[in-house]
What we know:
By secondary structure, the protein is mainly β. It has one domain (27-143). 5% of the residues lie in helices and 38% in strands. Strands 6-5-4-7-8 form a 5-stranded antiparallel sheet, with helices on one face. Strands 2-1-3 form a 3-stranded antiparallel sheet, covered by helices on one side. A hairpin with a 4-residue loop joins strand 5 and strand 6. The longest helix has 8 residues, at 27-34. The radius of gyration is 16 Å and the shape is globular. The two termini are 24 Å apart. The relative contact order is 0.22.
Amino acid sequence: MSENTIATVLAPQRAGIPLPTPSVLSQPFWEGCALGELRYQRCTACGRAEFDPNRLCRGCGSDALDWQVSAGRGTVYSYTEVVRPQTPAFTSPYVVLIVELDEGYHMVSNLIGCPASDVRIGLPVQVSFHEVDDGVVLPYFAPEDQRQ
């Protein structure tokens, strides 16, 4: 990047993007987001962390899944920068990433709070909740030292 180029800091999406439709299974997750809690499931039979919400443990098949609250810390496991979004409702560029959470599960989200050029595998990140539209709160991730 040249000295005259100013990097765009990634930001939460604006109102008007397609919104999630919570199901009976995912409702506790979305309720947690509205409260500023990143929720996931943990199997009480084998201890495996589960995300996205499921009826059965993917490890042992048990239906003994309890909702837990994550500390929301993790590292970037993988990512891609989107410059041509699927729909004009999304502001680009944005970075879609897979976060490896400290509790032992992976989650897809977006990165905010830094230029796209700063993202790297292993970057420590922390969840950051933002209301998008109609009371819908989405979990984004920001570099730990730049949480918004």
